[in-house]
Design a protein that fits this description.
It contains 24 helices and six strands. By secondary structure, the chain is mainly α.
């Protein structure tokens, strides 16, 4: 970009329609859950998306941020440090302190997440595509791309369960809907990435120092919210500046421009590295999430619908820093994915739909010259890239809700039982099955012996033991050993097919169960309680 020549275009009616569609996509899961409550009863927990353990953990984190500032792992009854601080969770915690429910204090970010994605994608597309039709097509492709390959594999059964799992995985990492359905801070980070790149381009080489400051501040927030995206931004800037040296850029000038931005991005990355080394819970999460990369063919299949046309743009000239950065972005994401450090590398794919969509439209523009985009062909292409995959993802979420294996909802009795545990004046944690364990920190403020798999020590063993206990399959001796080992203050059974375990735990509880409709709570004898909040 030649400094001073590019400014964001005014928002037109078409852009507003895109924004409204994105807001509708963001609101769709919650609207569907509320409709189900209206027709069938129950209470929405506030967790949306395909894996509700994650947003429920965020609810628990924001509750802790409200009460303590710093956050500890509550998916274990052992003492642990409060070492995690998160800027947006702190803001949500402040809302909770003002009277917002934990779910409302998190879901309030939904419109902000959609706006961040829209603003970042629109500004980035506008930097490279002069024609309004080109910009809008790139915007739609970037924001709504949902791989038709996933729909084909999922609906046809092609390749079996493992192939479906892999293709769903990569497609979900690329799709904006995944971020908006439960991972709102991810959406904000992905939306801010292109704004950091644009701010740096405006400020480098003698431009606005304020713009460089903005690039560093945005980069810091991106890295704090999503370290994979922070590393990606840093790699893009370093590689683009390195290539600029071939065209007369002085190394000292490049280093001066990069220094503040890289230091700002590095600060939260160093913080996460320290957490992974010094906090046992973060160390455990790093080990559990250190999964093998999916096969190469999965990467190819996931990226192909956008990457194939985007590849044609690499033959076009790249005269300015921003043009080079655009071309480096997909490669930087793949480097972050394949390099051996860190954990859960799959998140490196988040945000890659934007540069690939812009490159694809640049390639199309290079073929068309001055001719406008053909309306019918563009509509058909965008429809193929968006509609089947989106319908498939919506159908997958509907299936997850109907399966009932995750706590999208509470029964009234469960809500009342959790409120009673929350209000109890005695200290101590909760022993329950994993289904409800992931709810306990958010809805009671207490620790639980088992919860999210990434943060619960010895998760598989604890899951097996709690399923035996609350399924009524344990002997009296085994049930008492489980309670003694966990050392909780409360035993809690939810409304999902649990057995009456009164006889099994009679020797370790202080009295009969308190009944809350279909839910029950026992208080464990004082001498067996080992701790826990």
């Amino acid at each position: 970009m030649r400094r001073g020549l590019w400014r964001p275009a005014a928002i037109g009616r078409g852009d507003l329609l895109v924004l409204l569609a994105l807001l509708a996509l963001a609101a769709a899961p919650l609207a569907g859950l509320l409709l189900r409550v209206w027709t069938q009863g129950g209470i929405v927990t506030g967790a949306t998306g395909f894996l509700v353990a994650d947003p429920l953990q965020y609810l628990g984190w924001l509750r802790q941020a409200s009460e303590h500032g710093a956050i500890a792992d509550l998916y274990d009854l052992e003492p642990g440090p409060r070492s995690f601080v998160h800027p947006l969770l702190a803001l949500s915690g402040a809302l909770h302190a003002l009277g917002f429910g934990v779910a409302a204090a998190y879901l309030v970010w939904t419109p902000a997440a959609a706006l961040a994605l829209f603003a970042g994608a629109r500004a980035f597309a506008g930097r490279f595509l002069a024609r309004p039709g080109d910009r809008r097509a790139a915007l739609v492709a970037a924001l709504f791309f949902a791989s038709p390959v996933a729909a084909l594999v999922g609906w046809s059964g092609l390749g079996g369960h493992d192939v479906k799992l892999h293709v769903d995985f990569v497609s979900g990492e690329l799709w904006s809907g995944t971020y908006l359905w439960g991972y709102l801070f991810t959406a904000i980070a992905v939306g801010l990435m292109p704004l950091a790149l644009l701010a740096y381009e405006r400020g480098r080489a003698g431009g606005s120092r304020r713009a460089l400051g903005a690039a560093g501040a945005i980069g810091l927030l991106v890295a704090w919210l999503q370290p994979w995206q922070g590393v990606t931004v840093a790699l893009i800037l370093v590689a683009a500046e390195a290539l600029s040296l071939r065209h007369g850029r002085r190394p000292g000038a490049a280093a001066r421009d990069l220094l503040w931005v890289l230091v700002a991005i590095a600060a939260p990355l160093a913080y996460y590295l320290a957490l992974s080394r010094l906090d046992p819970s973060w160390e455990l999460a790093g080990v559990v999430n250190d999964l093998p990369r999916w096969p190469l063919w999965v990467t190819v299949a996931g990226l192909a619908p956008l990457a194939l046309p985007a590849a044609l743009a690499y033959r076009l000239p790249a005269p300015a820093f921003g043009d080079v950065a655009l071309r480096l972005w997909p490669a930087a994401g793949l480097v972050v994915f394949w390099q051996p450090l860190g954990t859960f590398p799959f998140h490196a794919f988040q945000g890659l739909a934007l540069p690939l969509a812009v490159l694809a439209l640049l390639a199309v523009r290079g073929r068309l010259g001055t001719r406008p985009l053909p309306t019918l062909a563009t509509a058909l292409a965008l429809g193929l890239l968006v509609v089947p995959g989106t319908l498939y993802r919506a159908d997958e979420l509907r299936g997850a809700v109907r399966a009932g294996h995750q706590p999208f909802f509470l029964e009234p009795g469960e809500r009342d039982a959790l409120r009673w545990i929350e209000a109890s004046p005695v200290r101590g944690g909760v022993l329950t099955a994993v289904y409800s364990g992931i709810l306990i920190p958010a809805y009671t403020g207490r620790e639980t012996w088992i919860g999210a798999g990434s943060w619960t020590p010895d998760f598989a063993r604890r899951q097996a033991l709690t399923e035996r206990l609350f399924g009524g399959r344990a002997s009296i001796g085994e049930a008492e050993r489980i309670v003694r080992e966990a050392g909780p203050r409360f035993l809690y059974t939810d409304c999902h097919g649990r057995a009456d375990i009164s006889r099994l735990v009679a020797g370790v509880v202080a009295g009969p169960a308190r009944r809350f409709g279909c839910a029950r709570v026992w208080q464990v004898r004082d001498e067996l309680v080992r701790g826990g909040l």
